[in-house]
Design goal:
Number of strands: 19
CATH superfamily of the largest domain: Immunoglobulins
Shape: elongated
Oligomer: single chain
Largest sheet: 5 strands, mixed
Distance between the termini: 78 Å
Strand content: over 45%
CATH architecture of the largest domain: Sandwich
Radius of gyration: 26 Å
Number of helices: 2
Helix content: under 10%
Length: about 220
Amino acid sequence: MDNYNEDIGTINSWTLETCEANAVTNSTLTNNIMDVGTGATYTVVQSDVEATSVGSTALQQQFMVTSLPEKGTVKLQNVALAIGDTFTQDDINNSKIAYTNSSSVSTTDSFNVDITNATGGFLASQQINFNIDTALALDDAFFTKTGISVFPTVSNGNFNVKSQSYTGKTEIELYNISGQRVYKTNLNFNSLGLKQVNVKQLSSGVYILKISSDNLQGSKKIIIK
């Protein structure tokens, strides 16, 4: 209502501000059971556990530990995690999360996490599961001395050999359950790092992985699905 007739004026400037609520998108979790040997350490990889959502990067997918495993320890860069501690999907993608158990018998273990992301999404009480199998136990003396680890022990034919302290030539051999050598290669760790071994051409089954470096040898069972 204009209370003054015939008044005039000029609008010099004006602004219009609109507000739009950001969409909240909960994360979707790929969560596969991980097989690990008794008394062994398993490095969690992206194909095992992966949280994704629209509008959030791997670094923004945050896992908060809400319960701990009963038979082992979850570690971020070799530091044990406690209830309330966090890690990210980026940590998993870069092989920074590991699970170590102290069991001497075949059993199962798990821990729980809540997952948040950059849009305010919240995925509660997700259980991360491990199957502990005596058949997949590591030769601890060899792996401790060399700093070499192998993961995953159950795969489609792709697995990783990681060196934390050893540098030099490492021989990799695979034998089938009949004792026949079906694969051989050499890896050269000029510096600390991660090497991938691809044996997708092999049939599904159980194999013995033999690793030799200098005068040391170690072996373990792996499964190709």
